Amino acid sequence: MKNKEHVVILGAGPAGLATGHELSVSGVKVTVFDRNNFVGGLCNTNVYKGYKFDLGGHRWFSKNEDLNNWFRRLMGDEVVWVERISRIYYDGGYYTYPISILNVIKNAGIFTIMYAGVTYLLSALQYSIFNRPIKNMKDAYVAQFGTKLYDMFFRRYSEKVWGLPCEKLSSDWVSQRSAGLSIWTVIQESLLKTKSDNESLIEEFMYPRDGYVRIPQRMAEDICVNSESNSVLLESTVTGIKYRGPNDFEVTYSDKEGNKTAVNASTVVSTIPLGILPRIMEPACDQKVIDAAKGLTFRALITVNVILKKDRVSIDTWLYVQDEDILFGRLHEPKNWSPAMVPDQSTTSLVLECFCTKDDHIWSMTDEEVGQRCVEDLEQKLKFIDRSEVIDFSCVRTLQAYPVYDLEYGEKIATIHEYLAGFEGLHIVGRGGTHRYNNADHSIEMGLLLGRKILGYDVDYMGVNTEPEYHEIKSSTDPKRDSYKLEEECN
């Protein structure tokens, strides 16, 4: 690209910053806008009374070793390794996750697992022998695990996260998150102890010592260091994008005082929600596109951050809470990820994730009500704490946290893509930008590859997070992705 090129990036989350990072090391002028007063988006780490709380637990793992090498170069000596120990809380019992047949037998009994086996065989007949179509999330899970294990380990949690019955959710979620995982892989892992050519990525992962926000912070630091003309502008909300022709845009944004400024761009990269982007474009879209954009919905999140006068609550990395009468759906203990997450090692903390939708009954509760209810559930239902051990708590509310895969979302996205294809030089990337449930590493990989694409390389950045295999298993047969710029190339 020529020096006159100017890439404007909407959103300082992991995908936007990764795109800017890749471009900036090649000398391209980059400007990043974000409406928040911090970088990282959903990868933010909140600090309260010296305690550090991620917005839910984000781990770093990837099938792509080139990406892992890039991550190590970026983070240097800030990386710590964390052993993953995850459990599911179901009807008063604790089950290991990923599912272990031996653990299910131990906790639920041999008759439960026998019943699960029968229901799986019936499902195999329906979906494999008689080719029953997979129409929704329930069908996809039942085809892989049978009705009993689906009900025990997938239905309740999925409906808690998404706020809809599994019959009203797309099977795409399952194909992206657990394709290739089935009762047979569970049996191989837990009974036969065979992993063939596969290597599990779920036993250990990398994590930034001082919280996940350090990844976007490091990328933002590099963007600004690489050139004095680069900038990451916070508390700056993009309000309009005027398309004047191929690779010729005018981007208007408002600062925190409400002052509007317009900048010229040769390329625009959007990580803002896909349902919002078409509505700020000029020329304006038609009603069909507006309707499709409004139809893309998100789940919100309230994270309750609890500080405890207790050295440890559990050894878990995560605990997935199935029961509907417990307000939160997942919890993690930051100290188990990195001791640096707490200022006093005689204390600990918890992050409790309450899945909700804007203006529903959970979102409408006050922070005090949400916090007190979560403390009550920790004490009375999980038996994890005594109320006297609670030092303090705080709540963080996040909109547009999880893109909802309803049964019509694919058609809506196709309609929007068709409209956006008319703007040469406009690209979408990231979780919200593509309305795709990416992990943070997926969004960063997409961003790095998009940067390469803008630089002129023939890469398919939209192919990230579409593999047909279970995303926590890697194999020697996995396709190799493009390398990212090595540190020595940047000098």
Major β-sheet strand ordering: 7-6-17-18-19-16-20
Spatial extent as radius of gyration: 23 Å
CATH C-level of the largest domain: Alpha Beta
- Average pLDDT works out at 90
Structural class: alpha/beta
Within CATH, the superfamily of the largest domain carries the name: FAD/NAD(P)-binding domain
The portion of residues forming beta strands comes to 15-25%
Report the uncertain regions.
Answer: 196-201, 473-483, 486-491
CATH architecture tag of the largest domain: 3-Layer(bba) Sandwich
Write up what this structure looks like:
The protein is an alpha/beta fold. The chain has 3 domains: 6-43 and 67-72 and 214-295 and 407-490, FAD/NAD(P)-binding domain (3-Layer(bba) Sandwich), CATH 3.50.50.60; 99-180, protoporphyrinogen ix oxidase, domain 3 (Orthogonal Bundle); 298-403, Polyamine Oxidase, Chain A, domain 2, CATH 3.90.660. It has 14 helices and 22 strands. The protein has helices at 14-24, 65-75, 101-108, 110-129, 137-162, 172-178, 183-192, 214-226, 287-294, 334-337, 367-380, 409-420, 431-434, 440-454, and strands spanning 6-10, 29-33, 45-48, 51-54, 79-83, 86-90, 93-97, 198-200, 204-208, 231-233, 237-245, 248-254, 260-265, 267-270, 281-282, 298-308, 318-321, 330-332, 348-356, 390-403, 426-428, 473-475. The strands form 6 sheets. Strands 7-6-17-18-19-16-20 form a 7-stranded mixed β-sheet, sandwiched between helices. A 5-stranded parallel β-sheet has the order 10-2-1-14-21, with helices on one face. Helix 1 (14-24) packs parallel to helix 14 (440-454), helix 3 (101-108) crosses helix 4 and helix 4 crosses helix 5 (137-162). It is globular. Mean pLDDT is 90; it is low at 196-201, 473-483 and 486-491.
